[in-house]
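User:
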Amino acid sequence: MQTQELWPGGPLFRQSEHFRPGTDSLLLADFVQPRGAARGIDLGCGSGILMLLLAERSERLHMTGLELQPEAAAVARENMARNGLSPRCELVEGDIRRHAELFRAGSFDLAVSNPPYFPPNSGAVSPREDRAAARTEGSCSLEELCAAAARLLRTGGSFCLVHRPERLSELCGTLAAQGLEPKRLRLVCARADSAPSLVLLEARRGGRPGLKIEPMLVLRDPDGAESEEYRRICHR
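Assistant: Predicted structure:
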């Protein structure tokens, strides 16, 4: 795939053949609030789009990408190098389920993930292992993902992810069971009169109960044109 600017004058990025960044990755990167985080991890980083966007936003943030597929990890390394971010961004090839063998507990202030949205055996599954892994939880369940984030975060650290609204109840329950308290929620919809299509959620390790629901993110105006906020997120 050809290397291109993410937006005019923006970072250079080459898509992996099987892990193409979509709207959900851009929305999640904008939703994340790095605050004073010094060390972050992207659980299942693919081509490194979240790492790149977050490292560009915060000069003090050191990002680690954990990726199971070697081809995607190699592309992510190239993307970091092309943008001069290699000193602050590293790639680790490995399985999220084996995180305890790769990292010490409490190593990170921030964890992010754009995980597969669908549980196993839900609809058609690609015969290609890499594409199936990007869509369904065959190689890492939601519970395993949340357990990894909980162990890798320090107390007070944040876990931000994007998911499907029909799994919101399951997501909140799974996070809470791992000691990750849901703290901030934003729904995404195509138009103001349409049902939400995505959920952006931040949970905090050891956080107190109390969920802030932010204004809905609307991607298009009534006339079908991109909303002002969506244009800002996409740097258009």
